[in-house]
Amino acid sequence: MKINQIIILLVLPVLSLFSEDHQGSHPGCTGKLKIVKIVECVLEHSPELKFARLELGALEGKKKVAAYLFPSNPYVTMGNSFRKYVGNDQLNGESGISVNMEFMVSQEIFLSSQRKSRMQVALMESNAGFYKSLTIERNTISDAISAAIRYRYAEKIVLVYDQISKISDEIHRMISKRSELGLVPPIEADLAESEKIKNYKLYQMALRDYEAQKINLTVMMGVSNREDISILDQVSPPILDNKDQSELIDYAFTHRPEVGVNESMIKMRAKQLDLLHKEKISNPTISAFSQRDGFMENVIGAKVSIPLRVWRNQSGEIQEGQYRLKQAESISEVNRHTIRSEVLQAVSSYKSLEKELETQPSGLNSKLNDNLEFLKTAIVKGQVNLKEALVIQQSFLNLKINLIETEKNLILSGIEMQRAIGLPFLEFKDHE
Fold first, then answer.
1. Residue among 242, 155, 238, 239 at smallest CA distance from 411
2. Which of 73, 91, 167, 233 is the most buried (most CB within 10 A)?
3. DSSP string, 337-365
4. In this structure, are residues 38 and 222 in contact, taking their beta carbons and an 8 Å threshold?
5. Residue 216: which of 139, 140, 148, 142 has the closest Cα?
6. Nearest-angstrom CA–CA distance, 133 and 370
7. How confident is the model at residue 408 (pLDDT cuts 50, 70, 90)?
């Protein structure tokens, strides 16, 4: 029992160290980072993207299989037979043994361009896999940038609630002292304490959201959530060049990799159906043989064998292939509807948030900070009614949070619009 305990005490620290090293196994993915570096870390760690790229390697193997010159390996047949004859043979009256030997090579061959069709099917499937990989990569980039933005703005909101919590704490402390001196009624001290507790709870809620956003980002990056991460730059707004909605939809149809997946799948199903029709003509097997019979004669010849399609005539496979092709076309139409909807919603949301942010006067955040400090001083000195002042303070706080949320939502909406339209990512500027 003591030995087992000693082993556990020795092994657990080692496992703990291994776990920490494993979580932080991405050098350069912690500390002060630009968003492009965060994206690189996420792409390097993403298991979904790794799986998609491994699938591309498997599809390359299928292309090699389809390019084989023959549908199967050759068959080699060898045979020996012995015949014993007795002395009453009417021809020569002698007894003896004759040996028959045979050697034959058989090879199945393609007919009706079946090999070419198989190569085309494999090529279309490989193209579909390539576009799927691009789709996963773009979605991963979009998710990574969005996660970084949410993390950064969650930190901003924590700072706001920390500021207001400290202000409330100071107000409560000063009001309590004045209440003890009889300068204000005790109810004002209770009111200040209630406001202090409320703002502290809001601060804790913001802190929990910040931790949740950090965990989400660090898991995507493959690093420990205990590591410090600071974002140095900001996402640049997308440039639409005054394009109308129909132009943006057309752009999405030509640049979204999902469209390439659908087109490749349709072509693959069409090539598969064409191959099924060609396979109605059976592949022949050609054989060449050399034989030596019992009379010491050498015989060389050839054979051709063709399977008869009696019971299986490909009708079921062809029917399935026809409906698979129609399904691929239907899926393509559904995805085009989805792309159209995503573009329209993303553009509408972005323009609405852009207008909302434009209505905010410049320097509003700085003015709100000054007003909060002025209001705190006025409350402490008893220059304003506490209840009215707290209502005004809450209004200022709500406006600060709303300003941060609107700015965050505008950036997130711009990222979604880039993804929906098929615009390139990784357009950044230094944080001001």
1. 238
2. 167
3. HHHHHHHHHHHHHHHHHHHHHHTSPTTHH
4. no
5. 148
6. 51
7. very high
DSSP, residue by residue, 9-22: HHHHHHHHHHHHHH
Task: Give the domain ranges of the chain.
Answer: 36-68+112-279+315-430, 74-87+94-109+281-313
| pLDDT tens-digit readout, 172-186 | 888 888 777 777 788
What pLDDT does residue 131 have?
A: 96
- Tokens at residue 92, please? 């020569």
Q: Which helix (H) or strand (E) holds 377?
A: helix 364-380
Assign 118 to helix, strand or coil. helix
Residues 205 and 303: their CA atoms lie apart, in Å, by 84
| DSSP designation for 87 | T
Q: Where are the beta strands (DSSP E) in 183-258?
A: 229-231, 233-235
Q: In whole angstroms, what is the distance from residue 267 CA to residue 357 CA?
A: 46
pLDDT in tens, 232-270: 888 877 877 778 889 999 999 999 999 999 999 999 999
Q: Which two tokens stand for residue 337?
A: 């509807």
Question: Radius of gyration (Cα) for the chain, nearest Å?
Answer: 39
Cα–chain center distance at 418: 16
* CA-to-CA separations, 303 to 69, 105, 201, 281, 285, in angstroms, rounded: 20, 10, 90, 19, 8
Higher pLDDT, 273 or 10: 273
Separation between Cα atoms, residue 69 and residue 398, nearest integer Å:
72
Q: How far is CA 382 from the centre of its chain?
A: 58
| Cα torsion angle, 124, 129, 130, 134, sign | positive
Q: Which helix (H) or strand (E) holds 3?
A: helix 2-23
The residue assigned the tokens 């909605």 is: 245
**Hey, which bits of 142-199 come out as E strands?**
none
Q: Which CATH class is domain 36-68+112-279+315-430?
A: mainly alpha
